[in-house]
Predict the structure.
Amino acid sequence: MSENVLFKLSGHVATITLNRVAKLNSVTPEMADAIFKLVERCNQDDDVRAIILTGAGDRAFSAGSDIRELDDYPTPWKFRNRPDYCDAIRGMSKPTIAAVNGFALGGGLELALSCDIRLASSNAQFGAAEIKLGWIGGGGVSFLLTHSIGPSNAAMMLYTGDSVNAERAQQWGLVSEVLAADQLQKRALELAQTISTRAPIAARTAKSNIRAAFTMPLEMAVQYERDLQTICMATEDAKEGRSAFKEKREPKFKSR
């Protein structure tokens, strides 16, 4: 894949690490390509049930796209149609956890927002800094930020480009938990392992359901949820869950 994007599978938990410490884990086109390939691998591998996305080192989760390489695109249209690494992460069909250690700026903020759950170290900083350089984000930041922290808070971040710290991010609902830097990876792995013990098909349908809830009217969302519930109820895993409950034992889910 790439020495700048690391992959590890431990049990049913995959960890994708952006590994470009000297450049604050900023993402190059080569790294974006590697992320797409790893997402495809995780989606196709039934052994993968939860994914952690993080950055190497303790200074940055990611500073987004490497600005030094943006002038390599011959036209704005070519830039517009590049493979976007945030699209790749949102294309993950299984639960994702962002373990945000340090700066999450620009595309790094969008990467974190593209994950289902966000945990942050106490030194984390979140910013949509593109406006300071003359443009805005293009990885879904306006939609995702507005839905996460509300339109007023999103406007503050998007109009100023100024960063918010981990405490403020948690107050606004941008992250679920703030942890000491030396506890972040441990907590992310613990949470991912917990998710990986749950019924995999149910977890994936729950993810689909959450996404639908962003855009569907209430009545349509409820009907969609009931359809997904019916699909889950027809699986072998659901049958196993009912049997385990009756027999007072832990269920053994097989993603079937």
